[in-house]
């Protein structure tokens, strides 16, 4: 029994199995309660760091992942009181653990600072920690289950990057001593990384101390001549870093716990070109952090930035060499940004990689709470990477390495999509966004990524400096060129500043803006990227009235006649990152209520209290869009009707509720913030009514943040999208909601009821019974979300792959040779054709069948399998409801094979249908390894659907995964 309990725990499990637990407070394993055994199995089977504290003595049980976090405290900590193992951090941990045990409510701290002595010194460490109560067999809280991950590198890295950014933004003064004093003041704001510092500059044969920070720095020598005990002279002479033991020369308490500084580092300040360093930065090393490669790289970047500032100040003082010095400064700044970007790519990679692995690991799937936390960290690390990529792009342009890769685009459509990404942020700021991008006479050849950066930078700039009025985006063709204009009614630019507006790193001093952050390279990047397309950009501005940028692309440079046409791209990471940054500017004082009323009022007038129809080709799928913004309603209507869906709209929550009560749609898309009745109120009202409580609801909101999403789900929404969103994301979410209701167009129209059955209501209500399909899903909901399809293999997930599927009409002839030949149909033991169905209306019953189809590993397989099932199982031989259910289940299985099969050994999927003695079995076989989907809100609805419409078994193996669906048929 002991071996079975610890079998899944790896090395730590083996140590636990060998431990004499009778000598611990837990007693022998044979006497452990079932609740403790279950908790131990959970801990040992997880690849995420987990710690179980059990009993009044807080006895520790943990897994391999956690053992790595406590260093040399392992394995002695097993079975030991945590107050002994983590004595130095107990003052911090005790209130969190006590609260979880006293209240029975879990807690979470995203970056908990702990003092650990795990590597021979008192270490500053940070952890993302959750404490949840652990209960015994009687439900009494007797311990705590701790789930944690170390985020020390992330916290410390962000802190150091903030210091470097502050130094870079400090600007240059015209006096060397004052410049160094300002730098030291900035460094002094970060004592955890630099306990003290002093700047020594070379003056003749002497190194003079010109600025200090920290009390201990004043005890350092004012001048250094021939030699010293601090390594300053050696660093200045050799250009190499010198690390020195402090010894007993000074006593400096530092770090979070005032441990004495033991080591100093002398960092050379490099000259602009070849030659001796201009000076040395002498800094104390934190006693709470190891002087590893990352710490050394930070000091190197710190020294480089100080050197840049010193050289800049000297350039102002040395009037005769001013021009050359400024040129070197520009190069040094570019090099600095490049170095920062490259240096931080390593820790970012080490954050993004493990986080993505944790999200996509099918062997150790995260629970919903942990998945949300890891996904949050993953997305924010991606935002940091976006900034790094921007800096590298500019460095590449500056160095002349950037090249345009033109492609033939529908430029107006691409531009409209990019502006749509910004719409939520612009309207949240109380501004109007006016877009005028009519079709051009022919495609334009530009680099899609460059065009995205050009448009997003101009829109970001307009939003940053506009507080009242509107932002206008227009794209028109002239006889000689295509012109994009981005205008605003913002603060305008002083005429004296206009010639420098496109200079790199130029900032208009004293200008009112929503944020003073920024690298100063946005407009310079616009000009350089425009020139790479063969065009140019100009600006016209009037102070107090606004600014207009005009991007001109001559037809001679962007003619797409000989350039291959490409699919218009969806907005890329640069646009999303720009909007995320702009959203951060829009706090309360930057969003005047008087300005927001105009846009909101227009939307309300257009739709409040009414419902308007937008035909979607007579589709059975009907969607209601509730949003107070007329432009957003039009945008959503265009996206949805393009999918063949019927759309009607409402301008507020009250109008939407009246419309739904009058005519129940198949899915509701509602905004959160609306007049008269907001989205949360609407959703709660719908969930209270029996007729509407199962209606799929998708909420849209400009209110970013986890809390807003939680509020939406708590209100009863099925899904929640934060603006801005991509068209592809919206369509995929809508398809998921429709599948959940049994109404997706990807599953095909539900067959009409057989003759003699109850008469169905006319019109759209004759579509498949929503409540019946939803009841089946609900019946399987609890089990389907946790066990059947997911127990034997990775969870299936609803995807948008069926967008490429062909239509769902009947094939010409059941099992025709022409149709099946392209898919290499094989029928074991029979002729290569499907069984012929009985004559229509004969009621001859279900024929026996054994058919194998081979489909390419592509989205089109979903549509093909629906058609083939209908051909082999025609409606006059099988109950239409059963055929419909089998089509949905098989489609989901095929979709999951296409979506999740990774690195397949064969480029196809095999689907086998067996019908014999009233039992129908469908087998879907792929030949790849499974891949879990990253999004945090993937709920495994595909698995729920398959289980609702058939008995499902998932059998994974090293060569692929087999999904088996069975249904009993009765004549």
UniProtKB/TrEMBL annotation:
Residues 339-557 form the Histidine kinase domain. Residues 585-615, 746-818 are annotated as: Disordered. Residues 622-738 form the Response regulatory domain. It comes from the Bacteria. SUPFAM superfamilies: ATPase domain of HSP90 chaperone/DNA topoisomerase II/histidine kinase, CheY-like, GAF domain-like, Homodimeric domain of signal transducing histidine kinase, PYP-like sensor domain (PAS domain). The keyword Kinase applies. The keyword Transferase applies. It is found in: Cell membrane. InterPro entries: CheY-like_superfamily, GAF-like_dom_sf, HATPase_C_sf, HATPase_dom, His_kinase_dom, HisK_dim/P_dom, HisK_dim/P_sf, PAS-like_dom_sf. One of its GO terms (cellular component) is plasma membrane. It catalyses: ATP + protein L-histidine = ADP + protein N-phospho-L-histidine. It holds the Pfam family HATPase_c_2. Residues 593-614, 746-760, 776-803 have a biased composition (Low complexity). Keywords: Kinase, Phosphoprotein, Transferase, Two-component regulatory system. Its main location: membrane. GO terms for molecular function: phosphorelay sensor kinase activity. The modification 4-aspartylphosphate is found at residue 671. Its EC number is 2.7.13.3. This is histidine kinase.
